[in-house]
Design a protein that fits this description.
With 454 residues, the chain is α/β, with parallel strands linked by helices. It contains 17 helices and 15 strands. The protein binds pyridoxal-5'-phosphate. It holds the Pfam family Aminotran_3.
Amino acid sequence: KIPNSLHASDIAHSMHPYTNMRLHEEQGPMIITRGEGVHVYDSEGKEYIEGLAGLWSVAVGFSQPRLVEAAAKQMAELPYYHTFAHKAHEPSIRLAEKLAEMTPEGMDRVFFTNSGSEANDTVIKMVWFYNNALGRPEKKKFLARNKAYHGITIASGSLTGLPANHKDFDLPAIPVTHLTCPHYWKWAEDGETEAEFTARLLKEAEDTILAEGPETIAGFIGEPVMGAGGVMTPPEGYWPGIRALCDKYDILLVSDEVINGFGRCGTPFGCEKYGFTPDIMVTSKQLTSSYMPLAAIIVNDKVYNTIADHTAKLGTFGHGFTGSGHPVACAVGLENLKIIEEQDLMGNAARLEAKFQEGLRKFADHPLVGEVRGVGLIGGIEMAKDKEKRLSFEPAGKVAPQVVKFCAEEGLILRAVYETVALCPPLIVTEEDIDQILARLGRALDRGWEWVQA
Ligand code: PLP
């Protein structure tokens, strides 16, 4: 058992991300001491199913010995070297090769960063560099969507379309326009069919491009399935329509696969699920199962060749991080992808999709629930006071966190995103684990309903 002083010390000295700091001073931390498979254990010894795979990321589960060994071996051999200015080492070479093999045809060049946010910052700079290389410096703006999550640095946080990430941080700080969130249940007009909704969103995107001037719009970025904004799956036809608009107006399409990538949606990448090929892909999280911080940007030949030609002119690509392609992170990433392949974890997600999604949809008639949505092994349950009118409980943003608290008491860690309870279990889950997740969630929802009525 961890002595209480650890709790006291945390309260006294730590500033936690995404935390109400004053509330934290009152209630203190939940200290996680170890993990095993789909489970983690707190300092009181209580066991939980990690229903969000940490932060949507621990694909292979906790304490996977092969990843520990891969890290230790690389630490002993070459704990660090950089990849600046023609230097290279085997782990980053092998991982880049593996990513080129896994990603769609023609996407063969990989740039490493330490986090998804840094990766999206890098993408913005790459897209700007690309347009400068083509002699069109005015083509700099991005299109993103409301409720998108692309990170929290000044530039990637600008692409993010969530008010909490902008408010009082003086963002956006780069030129970006946020379009309507492609979430049919929430944003469709009364009587609008899904096809009409898609057509309206595509028209909005095209009208925006034309109003701002196609010569000023450089990139469109989106998560195939939106994650941290509340798990929103796109309406039919949306992504092929966006791809066509990007082609028509010479806009680079960026698929942010930080959550979707490596099997989460039942296909290797989210873009494959929704039938489009981007120009640039961004991956992280399940790339190393988050055992080490690492992100990878994969670009197509068109982007690579334009950038590479320009570096030949300028003498360099003046961008990179001390940790770009960190050997230990890359060794862990490579071993992690091997495990995903050998254990067919992407296939596991596809095989368990029906059980997981149908199990979640059984809660659609629960009195707390407005909508259940998801694909593969990612899901969201949105709370609503009135399903038909899509009205939240008042005050908004209170019910889902309360349900998540009840889930934790029932031995299931999930995350509340506004009025949505998000689920994203490790890809190693079994049918029995899914039964447990659904049973615990069901009890938490019932307790939530009693709580709302009290
Ligand atoms: N992009 C997406 C889709 C994400 O979900 C996240 C993080 O949740 C990021 C980017 C940012 O990644 P990081 O937290 O590693 O900076």
